[in-house]
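I have been asked to look over a protein record a colleague put together. This is what I was given:
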Amino acid sequence: MLMPHPAVLRGLLEEYEAAAASEPADATGAPGPRTRDLAYTLCVSTGTRDVARALEAARLQLTAAAAQTAKAVEAARTPMPTKAGATAESRPSAKAPAKAPTPIPAAAAD
């Protein structure tokens, strides 16, 4: 199953919650059209058929994505191991002087 990007899913979830809270229900008490559209999109995005399950799945996916991001950030902060015996002096430096180019001999005149 394709997974929506966390930012897209978060936006859908926030928009659904806002619409459900502010959009007036129709005469039968059913949600308004925008809320129904967002519920459908959440169901399709999460692979569910019920809005309650879609909301639960969206929240779980967002929690998992946040944990994965935190794990990646922590891994990026961890220093990379160096080869045994390597020192700052033995590693090439970006500040090392460049070698002078070798002059090309002039062609002999005929």
Remarks:
- Residues 6-21+31-77 form one domain.
- The helical segments are 6-22, 33-46, 51-77.
- Residues 7 and 99 are 49 Å apart (CA to CA).
